[in-house]
User: What shape does this take?
Amino acid sequence: DEMAAADDKRSQRLAGFLTDLLRFGCIRGFRYFSAHMRGREEMIVQVVNRPQSISPVHSPSSSFSGSQFPELPRNQNSLMLSARTQRRLSGYGYINVGLPPASPTEREILTTDEYTTVFLLAGYARYNCPYVWVRTNHDRLVRMDEARSQKDNPLKLRSTSAWVSEDIRVWDIVAELVDVCTIPAPMNPFAVELPYFEALPLLESLAATAAMLQLLQTVLDGHMHRYDSQVRQDIEQLTVLHIKAVTELHAMTRKGVDPPRPLLSVVAVDDDAYVLPE
Assistant: This one.
């Protein structure tokens, strides 16, 4: 019937989302956040709270936009899904179950600091839709109106809410997390940390720049964003680094010199290459 067909379509879309999740979680070198996989369905995203607070050198003010979000902390009902909404969305409302993550916040073993906020982005098969939960520094983001158990309410994000009906990708959700969390909000949430790539050994640089270039181009090939011009600039600079690494490797090969063994390994998913730390 129509309902079963709709569920099958959402399951297929979620499978694609999980492939994107792995692709995104394997890439390093972003300026305002880092991400890593935690199982097949979960990605941990660590977002910078205030860029200037963790580095003495930061981008000029022109690289930041006026945030579209109110000052933090925000009211709970503006940033978190209510219990009633969760029960409606989860499909388990008849047993009074909402949208909890696989493990409660209190059981998380994560390093907490004042400079970053950690989020859990997951695409659980039982929900058939991606959601995001705050893992650290809840009080900075949300003014909790109810019991502390409400810390495990998923965030009320435009991107996750629209995922069912629109072509929302993993990077769209991460971009919104940066907008919500980072103050001042950067104009380009996907700004790359060029010194990170410049400091990598040859083979690592080759793999890491290729993976980042592929992802940034995929972001551009989606829909239009306010930060497209900045992403193109980063693509140009990374392309120069990538060509430099290819040229150096070619020169070493011609001389019969072996490049240093990489500290990163490369994995293939659906014919795409991703970089993983060993």
Q: What stands out?
A: The beta strands are 33-37, 42-48, 74-75, 116-122, 131-134, 142-143, 264-269, 272-277.
